[in-house]
Amino acid sequence: MSKAMRQMLEQSGRAGAARGEAACDPVSDEAYGPLLEHQGTGSAKPKAGTGGLLEAALTRQNLQAAWKRVKANKGAAGMDGLDIEQTAQVVRQRWPDIRQELLAGKYRPSPVRKVTIPKPDGSQRELGIPTVLDRLIQQALLQVLQPLIDPSFSEHSYGFRPGRRAHDAVKAARGYVQLGRRVVVDVDLSKFFDRVNHDILIDRLRKRIDDAGVIRLIRLIRAYLNAGIMDGGVVVDRHLGTPQGGPLSPLLANVLLDDVDRALEARGYCFTRYADDCNVYVGSKKAGERVMVYLRRLYADLKLQINEAKSAVASAFGRKFLGYALWVAKGKEVKCKVADRSMQGFKARIRQLTCRSGGCSMEQTVDKLRPYLLGWKAYFGLAQTPKVWRELDEWLRHRLRAVQLKQWKRGGTIYRELKARGATHDVAKQAAVNGRRWWRNSAKLLNSVLTIAWFDQLGLPRLS
Q1: Are 131 and 101 in contact (CB under 8 A)?
Q2: CA 190 to chain centre
Q3: What span, in angstroms and rounded, lies between the C-alpha atoms of 435 and 412?
Q4: Which distant-in-sequence residues (6+ apart) come within 8 Å of 141 by Cβ?
Q5: What is the pLDDT of residues 297-317, one digit of tens each?
Q6: How would residue 296 be classed by pLDDT, with cut points 50, 70 and 90?
Q7: 295 Cβ contact list (under 8 Å, min separation 6)
């Protein structure tokens, strides 16, 4: 793609010069090359003489970085069905026209494609997948807006912010509880991303952007908010919400919810917020009830609704936050552990990946498991429960031994394979005779044959 793209850049740059477009721009060819490979960081700020934030978003350097990020994310196609490479072909041919439409305020984003994914509680989360072209434009806008807006957010906000992550929010929560604030006001918003009020959001965004071209920029962002959603082949108009799936959605969510953060800060509350998950830590249940009443009023002002079934004022040790729960160790030290629901989700996913009738070899099964195990281990690395990690490792190896026996299936095959791996005659015979008892046979009987070292050789990551 790079060679063809370079040719496109050279040709379109010459054409733009011939027409006299952007003649006074110090980088006049930046309008014509969003897809040239570039090693930039992805952040951009408006430069003197470029005319504002929208022009800064459409510079060559910023678009190159945006394309690199969109390409690296390997997302699915939007409603137009065009993948990354197909979109590159379209942009090669149409980018000058697209850029002019953007600058003139005439660009109209495509509707997003509705996708639903299961949530741990059994409900469905709705995502809206923009086209690759719209993801490119949104990413370019994000790279210009985030460095300017993000520093104004509350220090208690951790979600989707540069240099911050879920671990920081969990550590802050643990610190508040360690200081004695052991009652939590756990607030869950009902369908937050589906109920964002566009007028309120645009008003809050406008107040944060000090730019001469703010009207064009706001008009473009509102166009993305108002883009319809394709559901079952039918485009449905949308007047509320900022569907998850687009690069701009997390930033816009933080812009809206920063009002609540500032109100809580003004009263001196200890709290952490990650996207729409907000926990306030207080010293008593009575104080927690007062905070809950206050939060209901704050969210109502934003036309948002609290999910009363999932929200509560309760002990901090009985609630989960971002997949973690808290417990008290010796010496009254507050520590983190994996929440029970997260643990159940982990085992359910492992069972899916290690289906005994899946028809995969053990090597293939381990290959499927490896990225999930490594990602899960990295995310829950704050958990201070070494015994639980060891037990999970033992459970996983037990299950894989059962899978292996099921794959060998026949008694004669089981006997032969175990003998080939160094099993004694008695162990191989006992396993072969009871060949249909996969789970029972795969316990202590096979530990000396299908050993931890054997799993290590297969590349199975250890959690402990």
Answers
A1: no
A2: 19
A3: 9
A4: 57, 217, 220, 221, 247, 248
A5: 999 999 999 999 999 999 999
A6: very high
A7: 185, 187, 260, 278, 280, 306
